[in-house]
Design goal:
The chain has 70 residues and is mainly alpha-helical. 49% of the residues lie in helices and 0% in strands. It has two helices and no strands. The longest helix has 19 residues. The two termini are 27 Å apart.
Length: 70
């Protein structure tokens, strides 16, 4: 994502964000990484809210567990 305030993200950028969240969220050194994790969580929340504007309220999504996508 651009540092100039642009809110557009590509699919590879979204996939990289998801990987960072998983890696940092399961890191044994989480206390040291908390600021980066907060930034990533904030960005992920913005992305989720933006994506939800483009779906029907009745849509159902499969959410993968710790084992990842199947």
């Amino acid at each position: 994502m651009s540092d100039n305030g642009t809110s557009a993200m590509t699919v590879p950028e979204l996939q990289a964000l998801a990987r960072r969240l998983v890696q940092r969220g399961t890191s044994p050194d989480l206390v040291r990484q908390i600021t980066d994790l907060q930034d990533n969580a904030w960005l992920a929340a913005r992305v989720i809210r933006s994506l939800l504007k483009h779906v029907n309220p009745s849509d159902v999504f499969n959410v993968y567990g710790p084992e990842g996508e199947r």
